[in-house]
Protein backbone atom coordinates (compact mmCIF):
# COMPACT_ATOMS: atom_id res chain seq x y z
CA UNK A 1 0.00 0.00 0.00
CA UNK A 2 1.17 3.56 -0.72
CA UNK A 3 1.29 5.45 2.58
CA UNK A 4 1.81 9.16 3.28
CA UNK A 5 3.12 10.04 6.73
CA UNK A 6 1.60 13.26 8.11
CA UNK A 7 3.31 14.61 11.19
CA UNK A 8 5.37 17.35 12.74
CA UNK A 9 9.02 18.19 12.11
CA UNK A 10 9.48 17.68 15.86
CA UNK A 11 8.80 13.96 15.24
CA UNK A 12 11.25 13.64 12.32
CA UNK A 13 13.24 10.79 13.89
CA UNK A 14 10.09 8.88 14.87
CA UNK A 15 8.68 9.41 11.37
CA UNK A 16 11.81 7.93 9.78
CA UNK A 17 11.56 4.94 12.15
CA UNK A 18 7.91 4.36 11.21
CA UNK A 19 8.84 4.60 7.52
CA UNK A 20 11.45 1.84 8.02
CA UNK A 21 8.95 -0.38 9.85
CA UNK A 22 6.25 -0.02 7.18
CA UNK A 23 8.71 -0.46 4.29
CA UNK A 24 9.96 -3.66 5.91
CA UNK A 25 6.34 -4.89 5.63
CA UNK A 26 6.39 -4.25 1.88
CA UNK A 27 4.63 -0.87 1.80
CA UNK A 28 5.71 2.19 -0.19
CA UNK A 29 6.07 5.12 2.19
CA UNK A 30 6.53 8.86 1.71
CA UNK A 31 8.19 10.70 4.59
CA UNK A 32 8.25 14.50 4.30
CA UNK A 33 11.54 14.68 6.22
CA UNK A 34 13.45 12.05 4.27
CA UNK A 35 15.91 13.51 1.76
CA UNK A 36 17.16 10.12 0.59
CA UNK A 37 14.18 9.42 -1.69
CA UNK A 38 14.63 12.35 -4.10
CA UNK A 39 11.71 14.22 -2.63
CA UNK A 40 11.74 18.03 -2.23
CA UNK A 41 12.17 18.50 1.49
CA UNK A 42 11.08 21.79 2.96
CA UNK A 43 13.56 23.51 5.24
CA UNK A 44 13.03 26.54 7.40
CA UNK A 45 16.35 27.89 6.02
CA UNK A 46 14.50 28.48 2.74
CA UNK A 47 12.25 31.07 4.34
CA UNK A 48 13.03 34.79 4.34
CA UNK A 49 14.94 36.13 7.34
CA UNK A 50 12.21 38.64 8.30
CA UNK A 51 9.63 35.95 9.00
CA UNK A 52 7.87 37.96 11.68
CA UNK A 53 6.86 40.50 9.00
CA UNK A 54 4.94 37.87 7.00
CA UNK A 55 1.51 36.40 7.46
CA UNK A 56 -0.55 33.50 6.12
CA UNK A 57 -1.12 35.36 2.83
CA UNK A 58 2.22 37.03 2.08
CA UNK A 59 4.29 33.93 2.87
CA UNK A 60 3.00 32.42 -0.39
CA UNK A 61 5.00 35.06 -2.29
CA UNK A 62 8.05 32.90 -1.62
CA UNK A 63 8.59 30.16 -4.21
CA UNK A 64 9.90 27.55 -1.71
CA UNK A 65 6.63 27.77 0.22
CA UNK A 66 4.61 27.05 -2.93
CA UNK A 67 7.05 24.33 -3.89
CA UNK A 68 6.68 22.70 -0.47
CA UNK A 69 2.89 22.79 -0.74
CA UNK A 70 2.90 21.35 -4.26
CA UNK A 71 5.31 18.59 -3.30
CA UNK A 72 3.31 17.50 -0.27
CA UNK A 73 0.09 17.63 -2.26
CA UNK A 74 1.63 15.51 -5.03
CA UNK A 75 2.58 12.80 -2.53
CA UNK A 76 -0.83 12.99 -0.82
CA UNK A 77 -2.49 12.40 -4.20
CA UNK A 78 -0.10 9.48 -4.81
CA UNK A 79 -0.94 7.82 -1.51
CA UNK A 80 -3.73 5.33 -0.85
CA UNK A 81 -3.53 5.95 2.88
CA UNK A 82 -2.41 8.59 5.35
CA UNK A 83 -0.90 7.79 8.72
CA UNK A 84 -1.26 10.81 11.03
CA UNK A 85 1.47 10.55 13.64
CA UNK A 86 0.70 12.63 16.72
CA UNK A 87 1.47 15.05 18.20
CA UNK A 88 1.19 17.14 15.05
CA UNK A 89 0.17 20.60 13.96
CA UNK A 90 -2.28 22.19 11.58
CA UNK A 91 -0.62 21.10 8.33
CA UNK A 92 -0.66 17.42 9.24
CA UNK A 93 -4.30 17.65 10.32
CA UNK A 94 -5.28 19.39 7.07
CA UNK A 95 -3.47 16.66 5.15
CA UNK A 96 -5.32 13.96 7.06
CA UNK A 97 -8.71 15.57 6.39
CA UNK A 98 -7.92 16.13 2.71
CA UNK A 99 -6.90 12.50 2.28
CA UNK A 100 -9.95 11.15 4.08
CA UNK A 101 -12.17 13.36 1.92
CA UNK A 102 -10.51 11.89 -1.18
CA UNK A 103 -11.54 8.41 -0.04
CA UNK A 104 -8.15 7.28 1.27
CA UNK A 105 -7.58 5.30 4.46
CA UNK A 106 -6.82 7.39 7.53
CA UNK A 107 -5.00 5.87 10.49
CA UNK A 108 -4.02 7.87 13.58
CA UNK A 109 -1.09 6.77 15.71
CA UNK A 110 0.62 8.11 18.80
CA UNK A 111 3.17 6.32 20.95
CA UNK A 112 1.22 7.28 24.05
CA UNK A 113 -2.14 9.09 24.01
CA UNK A 114 -2.13 11.54 26.95
CA UNK A 115 -5.26 11.63 29.10
CA UNK A 116 -7.15 14.89 28.74
CA UNK A 117 -6.22 15.32 25.06
CA UNK A 118 -8.73 14.27 22.44
CA UNK A 119 -10.51 15.52 19.37
CA UNK A 120 -14.06 14.67 18.34
CA UNK A 121 -13.20 14.73 14.63
CA UNK A 122 -10.66 11.96 15.06
CA UNK A 123 -13.84 9.98 14.49
CA UNK A 124 -12.92 10.30 10.79
CA UNK A 125 -10.12 7.79 11.33
CA UNK A 126 -10.58 4.28 9.98
CA UNK A 127 -8.32 3.08 12.76
CA UNK A 128 -6.64 4.69 15.80
CA UNK A 129 -4.00 3.01 17.92
CA UNK A 130 -0.91 3.48 20.12
CA UNK A 131 0.65 0.24 18.85
CA UNK A 132 2.85 0.54 15.74
CA UNK A 133 2.55 -3.20 15.11
CA UNK A 134 -1.22 -2.77 14.81
CA UNK A 135 -0.66 0.05 12.28
CA UNK A 136 1.45 -2.27 10.13
CA UNK A 137 -1.13 -5.04 10.56
CA UNK A 138 -4.00 -2.74 9.53
CA UNK A 139 -2.27 -1.68 6.32
CA UNK A 140 -1.33 -5.28 5.60
CA UNK A 141 -4.97 -6.34 5.88
CA UNK A 142 -6.16 -3.62 3.49
CA UNK A 143 -3.43 -4.39 0.99
CA UNK A 144 -3.76 -7.80 -0.47
CA UNK A 145 -7.29 -8.02 0.91
CA UNK A 146 -8.50 -8.06 -2.64
CA UNK A 147 -6.83 -9.35 -5.74
CA UNK A 148 -9.39 -8.49 -8.34
CA UNK A 149 -8.97 -6.31 -11.37
CA UNK A 150 -11.12 -3.37 -12.39
CA UNK A 151 -13.38 -4.55 -15.24
CA UNK A 152 -13.09 -1.11 -16.88
CA UNK A 153 -9.35 -0.38 -16.80
CA UNK A 154 -7.63 -3.45 -15.36
CA UNK A 155 -6.11 -1.73 -12.31
CA UNK A 156 -6.01 -3.70 -9.05
CA UNK A 157 -9.13 -2.83 -7.08
CA UNK A 158 -8.98 -1.44 -3.56
CA UNK A 159 -11.41 -2.48 -0.88
CA UNK A 160 -12.72 -0.61 2.12
CA UNK A 161 -15.95 0.46 3.69
CA UNK A 162 -17.83 -2.41 2.08
CA UNK A 163 -16.90 -1.34 -1.45
CA UNK A 164 -14.46 -2.43 -4.11
CA UNK A 165 -13.24 0.61 -6.00
CA UNK A 166 -10.76 1.44 -8.73
CA UNK A 167 -7.69 3.46 -7.61
CA UNK A 168 -7.38 5.04 -11.07
CA UNK A 169 -8.52 8.69 -10.87
CA UNK A 170 -9.78 8.62 -14.47
CA UNK A 171 -11.94 5.58 -13.78
CA UNK A 172 -14.92 5.77 -11.48
CA UNK A 173 -15.64 2.04 -11.17
CA UNK A 174 -16.87 0.81 -7.82
CA UNK A 175 -19.21 -1.83 -6.55
CA UNK A 176 -20.40 -3.08 -3.16
CA UNK A 177 -18.45 -6.03 -1.81
CA UNK A 178 -19.06 -8.02 1.35
CA UNK A 179 -16.29 -9.28 3.65
CA UNK A 180 -17.38 -12.85 2.75
CA UNK A 181 -16.78 -12.14 -0.94
CA UNK A 182 -13.33 -10.83 -0.09
CA UNK A 183 -12.30 -14.03 1.62
CA UNK A 184 -13.82 -16.23 -1.05
ZN1 LIG B 1 -10.74 1.25 -13.30
How would you summarize this macromolecular structure in one to three sentences?
The protein is an alpha/beta fold and 184 residues long.
Structure description:
This protein is α/β, with parallel strands linked by helices. The protein has two domains: 2-143, Rossmann fold (3-Layer(aba) Sandwich); 146-184. Helix content is 31%, strand content 17%. The chain is built from five helices and eight strands; from the N terminus they run βαβαβαββαβββα. The chain has helices spanning 12-24, 63-78, 90-101, 132-142, 179-183, and strands at 2-6, 28-31, 81-85, 105-109, 127-129, 158-160, 163-165, 174-176. The protein has a five-stranded parallel beta sheet with strand order 2-1-3-4-5, sandwiched between helices. Strands 6-7-8 form a three-stranded antiparallel beta sheet, with no helix packed on it. β1, α1 and β2 (28-31) form a beta-alpha-beta unit. The two termini are 21 Å apart. The mean pLDDT is 89. It binds zinc ion. Residues 150, 152-153, 155, 166, 168, 171, 173 line the site of zinc ion.
Rg, nearest Å: 18 Å
Q: What ligand species are in this complex?
A: zinc ion
Question: Which strand order do you get reading across the main beta sheet?
Answer: 2-1-3-4-5
Number of strands: 8
> What helical percentage do the residues reach?
25-40%
The structural class is alpha/beta
Domain module tally: 2
Major β-sheet, in short? 5 strands, parallel
> Shape from CA axes?
globular
Strand-residue proportion: 15-25%
Arithmetic mean pLDDT: 89
Order of helices and strands: EHEHEHEEHEEEH
**pLDDT < 50 runs, ≥5 residues:** none
CATH architectural type of the largest domain: 3-Layer(aba) Sandwich
What's the tally of helices?
5
Distance from first to last alpha carbon? 21 Å
What fold name stands as the CATH topology of the largest domain?
Rossmann fold
The first-level CATH class name of the largest domain: Alpha Beta
The quaternary structure here is single chain
Amino acid sequence: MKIYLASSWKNAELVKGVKDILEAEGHEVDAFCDTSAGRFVFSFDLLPANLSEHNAITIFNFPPVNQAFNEDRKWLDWAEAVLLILPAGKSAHLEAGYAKGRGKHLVIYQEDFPNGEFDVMYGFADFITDDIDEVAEYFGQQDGAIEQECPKCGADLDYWGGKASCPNDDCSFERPMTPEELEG
